[in-house]
Amino acid sequence: MPDSSMLPPAVTDGIRRLLDDAGITADVDLVARILATGVGMGVDGTDRLDLKITSAALTEMRAAFRLFAPFQGVPKVTVFGSARTAPDSELYRLTVELTQALASRGWMTVTGAGPGIMQAAAQGAGPDHSLGVSIRLPFEEKPNAIIAAHARNVAMKYFFTRKLMLVKESSGFVCMPGGFGTLDEMFELLTLQQTGKASPTPIVLLDRPEGTFWEGLRRFIDEHLIPEGVISPDDLDRVVVTDSVQAAVEEITGFYRNYVSLRWVGTRLVLRLRATPTDADVAVLNERFGDLLVDGEIERRGPLKAEREDEDMLDAPRLVLRFAQRRVGELHHLIRAINALPSAPIQARPA
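Request: output the structure for the sequence above.
Response:
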């Protein structure tokens, strides 16, 4: 419920009554907090432009949440790339092949809904496996025809809300060569992974055969960023740079061969898996990754109390550990090792 120290009791009571009248019964405390924040901005005398930004952002987020809601159980990959890529180019063809292959494995494709690489990704996935989050620009006003045909698109005014939805909803990412926008999206992905602000996900930088676009980025990192000490030497290890569509597909789907998801319960990290690891598997993981723990060992356990209370994936096998949060950027190493365990399923399954 709203913070009573911030608003008069009469206002707090009014918010409660409003929610009751609207018939809202789920997550009442969070909905009330949203309303209380809006009232608080009015009390603060917030500038009109700031209020317009807040209002538009919330409106756009609501529309995006409604777009994605019917597909919550379907794994999704977001494809980033240039809107200027021509339909007769090799990069366009590769993007079509990529999303065709992912769609055949049950994955949906999310794009910025524009032309170029975005259209190629939607074309390969097909209208039944495509979702779009477009941006309203003077020279790029409408979603491409493939996305528009099934009205599976939400238009955004602000890049920050658009990027939130392009990243939040997906379990994997592919970046094709592109300009400032593509590089901005790619670096945000890397930053979220490096800092642990997003759950580990597969990231592929895909180029044309024998292309040098992403290899140029790797050289810049090796020659400048790492020697300057502004990133860690292994920060790019979580990214696969390739010119092979098959390798890109295998990286996206293979990341979920055994690993399913994670959850923090207090100071403990819970990794949910598809297959129960053996005692020998757990021993190997402790030997390799013991230095990533605050204390104790990696343990094979059932659901923790908080998970049972939330009925959170109770049937999934688990590994529980006290992971050093300052090293959260290295989690992808542990996940890849879990996927390579002898007990892991032979074939990847959708995320």
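The two ends are 35 Å apart (CA to CA).
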